[in-house]
Design goal:
About 60% of the residues lie in helices and about 0% in strands. It has about 120 residues and is an all-alpha fold. The radius of gyration is 26 Å and the shape is elongated. The protein starts with a helix and ends in a 33-residue tail after the last helix.
């Protein structure tokens, strides 16, 4: 039977890194990647929104990114509907009422942008 002291000395012989040290190193690497990804997201949001360069918390960044994704999704869906719809003759109303408000999820789980058909 191996003692914990024997296990640690065995790992030290194999490369000088114990499992606890390896776990701590992996956590530091993960946190560094996470911080870099958050910085990139914050930079992208500032570039897209052309807003002031203010410090945001992680939560504020995630909320802003979520709102931006929803907005872009709506715009994309509306553009696709416009692109796919037949051309209307002048004088016809191009908008129609929708069963739900723009920006809501439908009962089918899809994000609704309203209807432009």
């Amino acid at each position: 039977m191996y003692s914990s002291q024997h296990s640690q000395s065995h790992y030290a012989d194999l490369g000088g890194v114990t499992p606890a040290q390896n776990k701590a190193m992996l956590q530091r690497q993960y946190r560094a990647k996470e911080a870099h990804a958050l910085f990139q997201l914050q930079k992208l949001l500032r570039d897209i929104s052309r807003g002031p360069d203010v410090h945001q918390t992680r939560l504020q960044t995630i909320v802003q990114a979520t709102e931006m994704i929803k907005s872009l999704y709506c715009c994309n869906a509306m553009l696709q509907e416009l692109h796919e719809s037949p051309h209307l003759e002048p004088g016809h109303n191009a908008t129609a009422a929708s069963n739900h408000h723009p920006g809501e999820f439908s009962s089918h789980g899809k994000y609704s942008t309203g209807s432009l058909a």
